[in-house]
Amino acid sequence: MTVSEERSLFVPDGLAGERVDAAMARMFGLSRTRAADLIAQGLVSVDGGSVGKSDRVLPGVLVEVSIPREVDALAVVPEVVEGIKVIHDDESIVVIDKPVGVAVHPSPGWSGPTVVGHLAGAGFRIATSGAPERQGIVQRLDVGTSGVMVIAKSERAYSVLKDAFRHRTVEKTYHALVQGHPDPLEGTVDAPIGRHPKADYKFAVMADGRASVTHYETLEAHRFASLLEIHLETGRTHQIRVHMSALKHPCVGDLTYGADPALARRVGLERQWLHAVQLGFEHPASGEQVSYESTYPDDLAEALETIRDAV
C-alpha cells in the first residue's frame, strides 16, 4: 500500500539559481536522483506550476512535493472503529459484536478498519501469539459478515481456544436468509471446499478441497426466502456462502455466490444476509461452559421484515 507525504518549503536565498532537482535535494534531504524522479512523475510544483528538473529556482518561490512512501499492508494501525461492541471482557478473552465492513485483521488489498486495530486503539492488550498482524485471533468472520466473535487476551487463552476450534468443540451458530426453500428443510452439507479455479477471491466445492461440514435447519419459510439456523463443524473461508450456493439457495444479497440482484435491491441489502448469532465454548481460564449472543443488525433485520411482509 502506498501513501504520500506532502511537503513544501520556500527556496532560501542561498539556493537561488540552482537546478530544481539540486535545490530539492538540499531542502528536503533527498538524493538528486530521487528528486529528479519525483519531478518526472509530476509530483513537484514551483509556485503552483509544473517544473522540469533542469529548471532554475528563484529565491522565495514555494516548492511543493508529494513523496510516496510504502506502508506495510499488514501493519496493525490503532484506530477506534465505530460500531464494534464489546459483549464481554475479562483477563483471558474479549468477546465482540463485529459490524459489517470490518476485517478481523490486516491483509494485502484491504485498507479499511480491522478488529485488531480497534482493540489496539481502544487500549486492549491481547495475546502476542500468532502472526504479527493477527495476534490473539483464534477465529475469523468475513468483512461482509457480522456477529459475535472471541479474541484471546492471554497466551493460555490463545492456546486453549485455538485447540478448541481445531478440535471442533466450539459451538458456532449462524442465521442465514437464503433464497428459496431448501429441500429437505433441514440437513447436512458435507462437501470439500477449495479456492475457485477461475476467481482467486472466491471459493467453491472442489473434489480436492478441504473437508467442510455445515448443518442447517429451517426456522422460517417465506415466499421468496427461508431463514436458516446453521451450525458449523468446520470453519473454512466462505463456508456457509459456498455451501448454500452449491445447494442453489445462496444467501440473499450474496451477489458473489449467485444471489439475485433484483431481490437484493428489493430488500435493501448490499451484502450477504449472514450473521453469527451465538458462540459457545469452554472458558479458557475457568473451564466453565460460556455462551455469547448477538442480535441482528439493522440492515439484516429490515431485510428480514421485508421478506416476511412480501405477498
UniProtKB/TrEMBL annotation:
<dbReference type="InterPro" id="IPR036986">
    <property type="entry name" value="S4_RNA-bd_sf"/>
</dbReference>
<feature type="domain" description="RNA-binding S4">
    <location>
        <begin position="18"/>
        <end position="75"/>
    </location>
</feature>
<dbReference type="InterPro" id="IPR020103">
    <property type="entry name" value="PsdUridine_synth_cat_dom_sf"/>
</dbReference>
<dbReference type="InterPro" id="IPR006224">
    <property type="entry name" value="PsdUridine_synth_RluA-like_CS"/>
</dbReference>
<keyword id="KW-0413">Isomerase</keyword>
<keyword id="KW-0694">RNA-binding</keyword>
<dbReference type="Pfam" id="PF01479">
    <property type="entry name" value="S4"/>
</dbReference>
<feature type="active site">
    <location>
        <position position="142"/>
    </location>
</feature>
<dbReference type="GO" id="GO:0003723">
    <property type="term" value="F:RNA binding"/>
</dbReference>
<dbReference type="InterPro" id="IPR006225">
    <property type="entry name" value="PsdUridine_synth_RluC/D"/>
</dbReference>
<dbReference type="Pfam" id="PF00849">
    <property type="entry name" value="PseudoU_synth_2"/>
</dbReference>
<dbReference type="InterPro" id="IPR050188">
    <property type="entry name" value="RluA_PseudoU_synthase"/>
</dbReference>
<dbReference type="InterPro" id="IPR002942">
    <property type="entry name" value="S4_RNA-bd"/>
</dbReference>
<protein>
    <recommendedName>
        <fullName>Pseudouridine synthase</fullName>
        <ecNumber>5.4.99.-</ecNumber>
    </recommendedName>
</protein>
<dbReference type="InterPro" id="IPR006145">
    <property type="entry name" value="PsdUridine_synth_RsuA/RluA"/>
</dbReference>
<comment type="function">
    <text>Responsible for synthesis of pseudouridine from uracil.</text>
</comment>
<dbReference type="GO" id="GO:0000455">
    <property type="term" value="P:enzyme-directed rRNA pseudouridine synthesis"/>
</dbReference>
<dbReference type="GO" id="GO:0120159">
    <property type="term" value="F:rRNA pseudouridine synthase activity"/>
</dbReference>
<comment type="similarity">
    <text>Belongs to the pseudouridine synthase RluA family.</text>
</comment>
